[in-house]
Each structure stands twice: as structure tokens, then as C-alpha cells.
Design goal:
Length: 204
């Protein structure tokens, strides 16, 4: 179902590399999704970071891909920031290098991308927005805080049914260095591995 290159990447994911401490951090997200699945309700995840430019988009795309891969139905993944900037180009490039089909829908200071993980799946629409943007759900969602700055700066997310901090180190630290491409890929694969672990634990 996934594009072949993404499928190969997924096969390389090793859940044993996730520490027990980290699995404990991921458990509240597993519990939230499982409760929704058990109740036959839609699972809405809003993955939030300060600028909605890097980690939140990677998390959104990998979570949506993992839900499709494991056949967990009625999962809708969104992303947002505490402020809107732009989806950082290296974020889109990293996903493209992993096998995602990326199409630019509009140019400008905040480009809009279509990001597809399979030929038949609906695309994830990627652009920078605030977490309470009209594009995102108003209520009944889990707010997944993917950076410590947003986690600390946003103690209350209106409409969130649950708030779950799952923070990742910012690949931005490598911007402008020879390690940039490698750092972004490393962070993307970490997020991908953890999102796939989460959805692998869901009992249908």
C-alpha cells in the first residue's frame, strides 16, 4: 500500500531501539488512540510545535502513514504551531528523500504542499498554521506537544480532550551546517519509528 521506498524504510524501523523510558512517554498516546478505536470514534491528533515548520509536520505525516499502514481506521492527523511561519524546505525535502510524493500546491511565503504516502491514500496537506487554525479540529482531539518550547509555553490548548507531551530535539540546530541533511533524516526516522511503534500497539 505504501510507496515502495517508504515501505523499505518502515522495514528498517527497530522498535527495540526505543528505550523503556521513551515507551512510557509514548504510552498516553497509545492509550488515547486505543480508547477511540474501542469506542469506534474518530481519532483526531493535532501535533503541535512552536513554528509548525519541522517536527510537528514530520510527526503529522508519519502518524498518518502509520495509521494507514496498520489499518487503523478513522484517524485524522493535523499539525499547528503557537505561531505560523512556513514549512521549512528541508522538512519537505527529507520526506521526499524517504519516498513520499511531494507536490507544491501554492508558492509564496507559506507554501502549501500535498504529501502522499501511497498512490491511493488521501494526501496530507502541509503548510504552517497555528494549532487553532480553521483547518484544524475545534474539539475532541489530543494535543501532542512535539517541542518543549510549545509544551512549556502552552499549558492550555482550547478544545483538546487530552494534552500529551512527546518532545523531539529540533533539527534546526543543524541548519547551515554540512550535517543538515543527515540531522533532518535522523530526526525524521526517529519520529517515524516512534509513530509506527505507537500504532503497532493498537488492537483493532
Amino acid at each position: 500500500m505504501l510507496y515502495p521506498q517508504i515501505e523499505n524504510t518502515v522495514k528498517s524501523f527497530d522498535f527495540k531501539q526505543i528505550s523503556e523510558d521513551r515507551k512510557a512517554v509514548l504510552q498516553p498516546l497509545i492509550d488515547f488512540i486505543q480508547t477511540k478505536v474501542d469506542s469506534n470514534l474518530e481519532t483526531r491528533l493535532n501535533l503541535i510545535c512552536t513554528h509548525n515548520s519541522r517536527r510537528s509536520h514530520l510527526s503529522q505525516v508519519w502518524a498518518q502513514t502509520a495509521a494507514a499502514y496498520y489499518g487503523i481506521k478513522n484517524v485524522s492527523c493535523y499539525s499547528g504551531g503557537t505561531e505560523a511561519t512556513a514549512l521549512f524546505p528541508m522538512t519537505a525535502e527529507t520526506l521526499k528523500d524517504t519516498g513520499f510524493s511531494i507536490k507544491t500546491l501554492s508558492e509564496g511565503s507559506n507554501p502549501v504542499y500535498s504529501i502522499k504516502y501511497s498512490a491511493d491514500g488521501l494526501p496530507v496537506i502541509g503548510f504552517s498554521k497555528t494549532y487553532d487554525d480553521d483547518f484544524n479540529p475545534e474539539s475532541g482531539f489530543a494535543a501532542i506537544m512535539t517541542c518543549s518550547q510549545a509544551d512549556g509555553g502552552c499549558p492550555f490548548i482550547a478544545g483538546a480532550e487530552k494534552r500529551i507531551p512527546i518532545t523531539f530535539e529540533d533539527p534546526k540546530i543543524s541548519d547551515g551546517t554540512p550535517q543538515q541533511k543527515e540531522t533532518y533524516l535522523e530526526r525524521s526516522l526517529q519520529i517515524g519509528t516512534e509513530m509506527f511503534y505507537v500504532f503497532s500497539q493498537i488492537k483493532k
